[in-house]
Specification:
Number of domains: 1
Strand content: under 5%
Oligomer: single chain
Structural class: mainly alpha
Shape: globular
Helix content: 40-55%
Number of strands: 0
Radius of gyration: 12 Å
């Protein structure tokens, strides 16, 4: 089954992730398909190198499986 943003990608971003972005004054919404698609390569780089979520946030880092799923979503041309 093909991946979808709503079912597979959006749930990987937690409420804490979302709150962290808002606290930084960002207009970037991790639960928005358009925003995540626009920043997908940057997000992939940051979850791959462990800088997102920030180590000080208390959030668990993405597992290799999560990173792989996000990469697959990109490779599949960002299915909604």
């Amino acid at each position: 089954m093909a991946l979808s943003f709503e079912r597979d990608i959006k749930p990987m971003f937690t409420a804490m992730d979302q709150d962290h972005m808002k606290q930084r004054g960002s207009r970037f919404d991790l639960w928005s398909y358009a925003d995540v698609k626009r920043k997908a390569q940057n997000i992939l780089a940051r979850v791959s190198n462990g800088s997102m979520p920030p180590p000080s946030s208390g959030e668990k880092r993405w597992t290799p499986e999560m990173v792989s799923k996000f990469q697959q979503w990109i490779n599949e041309d960002y299915p909604a």
